[in-house]
Write a structure and sequence with these properties.
Blueprint (H helix, E strand, L loop, with lengths): L2 H13 L2 H4 L22 H17 L5 H17 L3 H14 L4 H14 L2 H14 L6 H11 L3 H14 L4 H14 L2 H15 L6 H8 L4 H6 L12 H18 L3 H13 L6 H22 L1
């Protein structure tokens, strides 16, 4: 990090988030710089594996013990989930738990699905089962925190997302989700200062720290969209995956700035990437609907 950027971060810590809470006088023009990507194609390997697993379970069901059948159903459910077939996935996760009730990852998937459906009590029960079975599960605190966020239980969301952040402060997504929950809990200035502090103390060369720069005001949206968002793709990363994340967090930023129509466009674009496995894709529909409702309400007034 250069000294110019550090200086801006220190200024941001002092000023809080006045820029995020102000009402813009004109609609943002950054949509002209959008990178629109082709939807991610369904993975052929996943489809082949699905066919093989279905064939095995059909032909060898009587020979399989409960543990093996549970594992096969869980694996097939995770493949359905990756292909966006979440109803079929949910059926298989529930069946897997009938055979093998200690599958923490199956409960984790179910918790995510219940969050997407707005069935939060079921989601909390699922995540509590995950943590009972596997207290150090790598994603349970994130996913339970996100459930609390969408359930408007921001105190609970903050606790879980703080725990998730502390487990790996070098992960920029953890810093962003902690920030989003803290803003909603009602202390946006502290949230902004926390985010800037995380950037100063824990940043790496991970591309998503650029999203943090965007949120704290040391990178412009035009700069992010025109160059930064598409640079330095990892060998195992697609442009659709990168833009799914970019669109989602740009949408969240536009919400904070009160630009609801632009936010809705970004979330719709996140959905068009078809990166079904990403958290950002899972919740983009909820965010798009909420943004559109707010935009319509603003026009009605």
């Amino acid at each position: 990090m250069n000294f110019h950027r550090i200086g801006w971060l220190m200024v941001i810590c002092c000023l809080g988030i006045a820029g995020c809470t102000s009402t813009p006088t004109a609609q943002d023009k950054s949509l002209g710089n959008l990178v629109v990507v082709a939807p991610q194609a369904p993975d052929g390997r996943f489809q082949l594996e699905l066919a093989k697993l279905t064939d095995i379970m059909a032909k060898e069901a009587e020979q399989l013990d409960a543990e093996s059948m549970g594992q096969l159903l869980y694996r097939r459910g995770s493949l359905y989930d990756a292909l966006g077939l979440i109803t079929l996935a949910r059926i298989d996760f529930n069946r897997a738990l009938d055979y093998q009730p200690r599958l923490a990852d199956a409960y984790n998937y179910l918790g995510i699905h219940y969050t997407q459906l707005g069935q939060f009590e079921y989601a909390y029960e699922a995540f509590e089962a995950v943590l009972e079975l596997e207290p150090e599960h790598p994603y349970a605190y994130l996913n339970r925190g996100v459930a609390g966020y969408y359930d408007h239980r921001f105190d609970l969301a903050n606790d879980d997302l703080q725990h998730y952040f502390e487990a790996d402060p070098s992960d920029p997504y953890r810093a962003i989700w902690r920030f989003l929950a803290a803003v909603e809990e009602g202390d946006p200035q502290r949230a902004q200062q926390q985010l800037a502090k995380a950037r100063l103390e824990h940043s790496t060369d991970a591309w998503a720290w650029g999203l943090v720069d965007l949120y704290i005001g040391v990178m412009s949206e035009d700069e992010f969209l025109s160059s930064y968002a598409t640079q330095g793709l990892a060998a195992d990363e697609t442009l659709a995956e990168r833009m799914c994340e970019s669109y989602f967090y740009l949408g969240k930023l536009k919400q904070l700035e009160g630009e609801w129509d632009t936010a809705a466009v970004y979330f719709r674009l996140a959905l068009t990437t078809n990166v079904y496995m990403f958290l950002e894709h899972r919740y983009a529909a909820i965010e798009m609907d909420w943004s559109q409702q707010q935009a319509n309400a603003a026009r009605a007034n």
